[in-house]
From TrEMBL:
Record-level GO cellular component terms: chromosome; cytoplasm; nucleus
Positions that bind substrate: 102, 152, 307
Annotated binding of a divalent metal cation, by residue: 179, 181, 268
EC number annotated for this UniProt entry: 3.5.1.98
Protein name, entry field: Histone deacetylase 8
């Protein structure tokens, strides 16, 4: 159900969107063509009429990129971006920076990733300036990239730059990660930071990438208790996911009282995603985002994983509609990619018959432990 019209009438929403941004980000191998599909569906539902488009988007300059990634890493990224290298042609120092396997050398990767980072920062700036209540970059959300390493299809961690931009204006920023995979790059960047709370809900199993995000990973030093991890098992349902999210995030708002919130909305936890691990539909995600919108704090929404592209487009279009307060027709409107939504041409995502391995008692204890750590964070913040 949509948020009541009265609650959204005054909500100002911005979308980072330009032809160059969409076309360039559609060139990344693992998500080739995805951003075109996503923004075409948003356009087909006429949602651009209900928001402000941030179209004057520029690549994040190298001086700003050095605020997180190292000079050596950026120089290596430029090298693999400017030549047509095969993975077996990489020398050892390039391999050391992670340019193989899941982050192969891609011509233009530096330009693409720095433009995506520029778009995320532009969205964050629009929030910080008080011009908008919600800002969105569906081409962003690359949460695995580390200071010195490309990882998990991520070459530049745009999220870190978005958080740092918000941190200039707000004392406390909360980062939430809904992707199937643990938000390890963002957590690691802020593991020792008291002013940035990272919260990740994800699948955790032996041998599953990135192999981190246990519930006892809680931050360290000044950032102790400011990292929250809720590792879930296969087959988690909308109801379980949304209830766990509500309990943890309500506690986070109370304990941490963030000035702004960043939410990575990776779509690979959908039942229809290629991973087929979680069993979420649009409802599970929308219930989570609804809670964030109701908190009435500046909210930066980002993309992320999502490898069944029509499902990803449905989710991010539905979240955009929720932000602007529009009820969407369940029938996909006719547009140039209409055929990709067959055979039912319907906005819904159907859950699978997958077995749910999440025991309700275990889940309750997991949530209670996260809530307890958040109370300890509140105590630690009061002592400072």
């Amino acid at each position: 159900a949509a948020v009541p019209a009265s609650a959204v009438r005054d909500r100002r929403v911005a979308l980072a969107y330009s032809r160059q941004l969409v076309e360039l980000s559609a060139q990344l191998p693992k998500v080739r063509g995805r951003s075109v599909l996503v923004h075409s569906l948003i356009h087909a539902y006429k949602l651009l009429d209900r928001l402000t488009v941030l179209s004057d988007l520029k690549p994040l300059p190298e001086s700003a990129l050095l605020g997180f990634h190292s000079e050596a890493y950026l120089s290596a990224l430029k090298r693999v971006s400017s030549a047509d290298l095969e993975a077996d042609e990489l020398d050892s120092d390039l391999l050391e920076f992670g340019f193989a396997y899941d982050c192969p050398p891609v011509r233009g990767a530096f330009d693409i990733a720095s433009l995506v980072a520029g778009a995320t920062v532009a969205a964050a700036e629009a929030l910080s300036a008080g011009q908008f209540d919600v800002a969105i970059n569906w081409t962003g959300g690359w949460h695995h990239a580390k200071r010195d390493e490309a990882s998990g299809f991520c070459y530049i961690n745009d999220i870190v730059y978005g958080v740092l931009e918000l941190k200039k204006r707000y004392d406390r920023v909360m980062y939430i990660d809904l992707d199937l995979h643990h938000g390890d790059g963002v957590e690691e960047a802020f593991y020792y930071s008291a002013g940035i709370l990272t919260v990740s809900f994800h699948y955790r199993a032996d041998g599953f990438f990135p192999g981190s995000g246990d519930s006892d990973d809680i931050g360290a030093g000044p950032g102790r208790f400011a990292s929250v991890n809720v590792p879930l098992k296969e087959g988690v349902s909308d109801a379980q996911f949304a209830a766990s999210f509500a309990a943890v995030i309500d506690a986070a708002f109370e304990a941490f009282d963030p000035g702004a919130v960043v939410c990575q909305c990776g779509a690979d936890a959908l039942a229809t995603d290629e991973f087929k691990i979680f069993n979420l539909t649009l409802t599970g995600y929308l219930d989570c985002v609804k809670l964030l919108l109701q908190s009435r704090r500046p909210l930066l929404l980002l993309g992320g994983g999502g490898y069944h592209f029509p499902s990803t487009a449905k989710l991010w279009t539905a979240i955009t509609a929720l932000a602007v307060g529009v009820d969407l027709d369940k029938d996909i409107p006719e547009h140039s990619f209409f055929s990709q939504y067959g055979p039912d041409f319907c906005l819904d995502v159907t859950p699978s018959l997958k077995r749910n391995l999440n025991d309700s008692t275990e889940l309750r204890l997991l949530v209670e432990s996260a809530v307890e750590n958040l109370k300890r964070l509140a105590e630690a913040l009061q002592l400072r």
